[in-house]
Amino acid sequence: MVSTTVFLSRGHTDSVTTLALSDRLLASGGDDGNIYFWSPSQSNFPLQFTPRQAPCSTVKFHPDNPEILYSAHGRYINTWDLRCLRAPVVVWNVNEDEVNSIDVLKDEARLAAADDSGAVQVIDVNSGNIIRTLKKHDNICSVAKFRPKRTWQLISGGLDCRVIVSDWKGTGRGVIIFELDEIVSSNLFGDSHSPINYQPHELSNRGSSDSHASSSDYAEVEYDEFDETDEDVEDDDGPDSHRLLGDIHSTEQDQTEADTSDVSSDPNAEPLESTSVQVTVMPAPDTWRSGIPVNPPMVHSIACSASGDFVAAGLEKSTIELFAGDGKRLAHLESLYGHRRAVSTLLFIGDDHLISGGNDYSLFLWTLGSDTEGQRISHDAKVNAIEGKELQKIFIADYSPVIRLLDMSLC
């Protein structure tokens, strides 16, 4: 049972696309170009709003200064001071294409902006200068997140079906690349002689990462050398020399990013030797047998737990891929099955619960570290965004102009 306690409806005139929550305010951005600020506990009327802009794709409060909000409108990133909302304090035009995601690093005044060109810009929010440009995705980069407690790591996902972990503070080129098309195929079809347990009528299910390799088996590629050119660097061993087949897949990126960092290193340093493990993967049977949509596993959403020990990726294929690691490294832990269409948004509540929303008009509440199946909550529209700090107050934005406040502790 879920209790709908509040409808925040006296504001937007079009779909609400994004939400952000500070200690005292909820911010919402929409396709109508407006940003509204609401009291999370007192009123269904907005307290403040900004002048209308282009459609808003994402908003984010500054974690160290809740009076500052960042919003993305096309290629532009606006900085707003809530004490004076007549106009943005500053407008940045640093991305090559439309910005899809913004994240701000606590205590370090750094903002990451992922865009349609596949790049992630890391910006100094005090000066507006670009600290680093990471160009690792071959397609649209839909989301980028700083990993909590491992502030040197930036995790990004895109429509190239990859989750990429970058060391943005170092050379920016030490990466782990998870090839999700092979992870998903391995989990679903790793053993063509075994029966497929997932049934189309089931509400939810889990798939552990144990069919062909343990979750700790992967190859990590690290570089000490720093290259400031835009030219491609060819790998003498070929593009497939650093690939691990099975549940964890890591490959060396042939592309280089346009680094604008002040970071320096020894130009004569040699790249660290990488390792690779070859694991045989059985042929995949007919994908329709699984009951899972056959869409490619493009990444639409990423969320990190507060401890940074868990990372979740929501896929077009309708699954959620869960990664875990108590150090700097991540490994694929399990796949969560429940949604019928793309998983558009994810939210961790502590390290114990994960909430997902999808294009299948549904929400799921997952309990981590438990064999309990995800709890499904029906919704009446495609879900765009989820925000909250506790299960008793979860804000839901969807294709309607209305924001819902749900008590999910009753699930």
Key phrases:
411 residues, Methylamine Dehydrogenase, Chain H, 5-stranded antiparallel sheet, 4-stranded antiparallel sheet, 1 helix, 29 strands, globular
Structure description:
The chain is an all-beta fold and 411 residues long. It contains 1 helix and 29 strands. It has a single domain, classed as Methylamine Dehydrogenase, Chain H. 2% of the residues lie in helices and 40% in strands. It has a 5-stranded antiparallel β-sheet, with helices on one face. A 4-stranded antiparallel β-sheet has the order 1-29-28-27, with no helix packed on it. Strand 16 and strand 17 form a beta hairpin. The longest helix has 10 residues.
Structural class by helix and strand composition: mainly beta
Assigned CATH superfamily: YVTN repeat-like/Quinoprotein amine dehydrogenase
The averaged pLDDT comes out at 79
Name of the level-1 CATH class:
Mainly Beta
WD repeats: 9-39, 336-376
Biased composition (Low complexity): 205-216
Keywords: WD repeat
Biased composition (Basic and acidic residues): 239-252
Short description:
The chain has 1 helix and 29 strands.
Topology:
Blueprint: E1 3-8, E2 16-21, E3 26-30, E4 35-38, E5 48-49, E6 58-62, E7 65-73, E8 76-81, E9 90-92, E10 99-105, E11 110-115, E12 119-124, E13 130-135, E14 141-146, E15 153-158, E16 162-167, E17 175-179, H1 180-189, E18 205-208, E19 299-304, E20 310-315, E21 320-324, E22 331-337, E23 343-349, E24 353-358, E25 362-367, E26 375-378, E27 383-390, E28 393-398, E29 403-407
Antiparallel strand pairs: 1-29, 2-3, 3-4, 4-5, 6-7, 7-8, 8-9, 10-11, 11-12, 12-13, 14-15, 15-16, 16-17, 18-22, 19-20, 20-21, 21-22, 23-24, 24-25, 25-26, 27-28, 28-29
